[in-house]
Amino acid sequence: MYRGRFAPSPTGPLHAGSLVAALASWLDARAQRGRWLVRIEDVDGPRCPPGTDEVILGQLAALGLVPDEPPVWQSRRDTHYQAALDRLVAAGDAYGCACTRAEIAAAYERMVGPRPRHGELVYPGTCRAGTHGRPARAWRLRVQGRVDWQDRRLGVQSQDLAAEVGDFVLKRADGLWAYQLAVVVDDAEQGITDVVRGEDLADNTPRQIALQRALSLPTPRYLHTPLVLAADGHKLSKQNGAAAIDLTDPAARLREAAARLGLPPLPDAATPADTLAAAVTAWAAGG
């Protein structure tokens, strides 16, 4: 049975971009007669103002996007993430890293050369063979080779994890769990079959597939939706001041989000329920 989810990070209220992702995941679940869940991804607690999670749940309810099961909060699932990390360490797939970011950058320049100005800092494997008596600050997954995967919208995708990312963090130096580990554990435990989310998260998919394989977990199907851009051409986000959704006319906001997903114009229904019903039909017709 199809099981999808919307997993907002409660660093601020939903804006137009996050509504597009929420609506896409809800439509995909409804079009396939599946279940739709909401997971509050508050694993990075210091960035999540108190009460923002309830604001988001209230926004979703006003839009008629109500989950089929009670929401789950990542901040309450520490033991699940620790159990997964323990399994990876015991299998030799994860290890402690004692390096600071400055040390990693210096090692990268010594081993590879100057880092591209806007490129990702690829971990050069400085602690792969051990920390040489220094205490571990973070924990990393040992990666190798290329990950190939199929996106339902973007088509065939590929990334050489070792060359483009390196051994990535599972538990941070500040003691917080990394997004990659938390989302993989949660998707598996919630039985998620389909992940529908914004295209900005597509680059995370190879890391998550690598983790799924290391933990012997199933890999969901993926669909990454178009991004909503601000006037300056950058992704609309909370970080660049995206405004919270104006809910004085929820049906209108849903029609706008549907249009950004490429659906044909929806009728000017008075209620969110009527708008959503029309949107499900349009989504299903689009395949």
TrEMBL record:
The cofactor required is: Zn(2+)
Free-text remark on how the cofactor is bound: Binds 1 zinc ion per subunit.
Q: Where is the Glutamyl/glutaminyl-tRNA synthetase class Ib catalytic domain?
A: 3-246
What are the alphabetically sorted keywords of the record?
A: Aminoacyl-tRNA synthetase, ATP-binding, Ligase, Metal-binding, Nucleotide-binding, Protein biosynthesis, Zinc
Name the residue ranges of motif: 'HIGH' region: 8-18
> Where does this chain carry the motif 'KMSKS' region?
235-239
Is Metal-binding found in the keyword set?
yes
Enzyme Commission designation: 6.1.1.-
Q: Where does ATP bind?
A: K238
- What NCBIfam families has UniProt attached to this entry? PRK05710.1-2 (NF004313), PRK05710.1-3 (NF004314), PRK05710.1-4 (NF004315), queuosine_YadB (TIGR03838)
Supply the PANTHER family for this chain.
GLUTAMATE--TRNA LIGASE, GLUTAMYL-Q TRNA(ASP) SYNTHETASE
Record function comment: Catalyzes the tRNA-independent activation of glutamate in presence of ATP and the subsequent transfer of glutamate onto a tRNA(Asp). Glutamate is transferred on the 2-amino-5-(4,5-dihydroxy-2-cyclopenten-1-yl) moiety of the queuosine in the wobble position of the QUC anticodon.
The name this protein carries in UniProt is: Glutamyl-Q tRNA(Asp) synthetase
